[in-house]
Amino acid sequence: MRIDVLTLFPEMFGSFFEASIMGKAQEKGIVQFQAVNFRSFSTNKHQTVDDYPYGGGGGMVLKPEPIFGAVENLVSASDRPAASPRVILLCPQGEPYHQRKAEELSREEHLILVCGHYEGYDERIREHLVTDEISIGDYVLTGGEIPAMTIIDSVVRLLPGALGNESSAITDSHSTGRLEYPHYTRPAVYRDWAVPDVLLSGHHERIEEWRQKESLRRTWQRRREMINPDKLTKAEKSWIAEFERET
Questions:
Q1: How many domains does the chain fold into?
Q2: Is 85 known to be catalytic?
Q3: Is 138 labelled as part of a ligand binding site?
Q4: Is residue 220 part of a domain?
Q5: Residues 65, 92, 103, 180: which is the catalytic one?
Q6: Is 114 part of any known ligand binding site?
Q7: Is residue 116 a known part of a binding site?
Q8: Using CA atoms, how far apart are residues 167 and 7, in angstroms rounded to an integer?
Q9: 80-130, pLDDT tens digit by residue?
């Protein structure tokens, strides 16, 4: 996979691309990263990328020329000419980001993420250039760099070979449609708090059942809207009845 980020602050991505899972994935050749300053695609001698909005109002608006120029340059220079990239605009107005979207994007060959600043984007960028608009939450940030890092992290960890344990991404919270079950490690007893006996039993079927039940319990307690009553098994319905009695 190739991931390009269009930003006015490419220096923000240096350590991010080199550290932890991102760095290891790049070393293995699983993903290629590039941060591009779209200011260099400005069409005026002062390299301005924003201007006052038509009709008046506060704030500045990103001009279309630098963004179009940067995306078109990346596409023409791509070593995957047959694959059209997904061009993603990071924007508070965009589709709320979720795990299913991360899984969808992880199947692409080329992602281009556009990090905005100022008041907003010229509307022609939305209408004629981007394929997706994504928001990571109902709040406003200074720019799109942190949302871009969020999307990149969530996508790269899903790529085959990126994680040391391939099952980790599969069992993550939200990947299964439920929140993940609790985890424990050594010591077996810490300050009189003991690890559940079933996890020490070595009985794999009982451990798997415990994990499914605790995953459902945590989802029921914290994100009940994620549970579809029509898709519950008989055992899951009985567990929820047990949770209700306990409550």
A1: 2
A2: no
A3: yes
A4: yes
A5: 92
A6: no
A7: yes
A8: 33
A9: 666 799 999 999 999 999 999 999 999 999 999 999 887 789 999 999 999
Do 23 and 119 reside in the same domain of the chain?
Answer: yes
Asked whether residue 165 is domain-assigned, the answer is no
Out of 119, 180, 209, 236, which one is annotated catalytic? 119
pTM of the model: 0.86
Q: Which of 108, 109, 153, 172 is catalytic?
A: 172
φ and ψ of 157, to 5 deg: -65, -15
64: nearest Cα among 16, 120, 112, 148: 120
> Does 51 qualify as catalytic in the annotation?
no
Is 54 annotated to bind ligand? Answer: no
Distance between CA atoms of residues 222 and 243, nearest Å = 13
Closest CA to 6 of 176, 172, 121: 121
Give residue 71's domain range.
Answer: 2-156
Find out whether 30 is annotated in a ligand binding site: no
Question: Given the structure tokens 């599969």, which residue do they identify?
Answer: 170
What percent of the chain shows pLDDT beyond 90? 86
152 annotated as ligand-binding: no
* Sequence-ordered list of residues with C-beta below 8 angstroms from that of 87, at least 6 positions apart, any chain: 71, 112, 114, 129, 130, 131, 132
| Residues making up the chain, counted from first to last | 247
Q: Are residues 116 and 238 in the same domain?
A: no
Active site residue 119: yes
Q: What are the pLDDT digits (tens) for 124-139?
A: 999 999 999 999 999 9
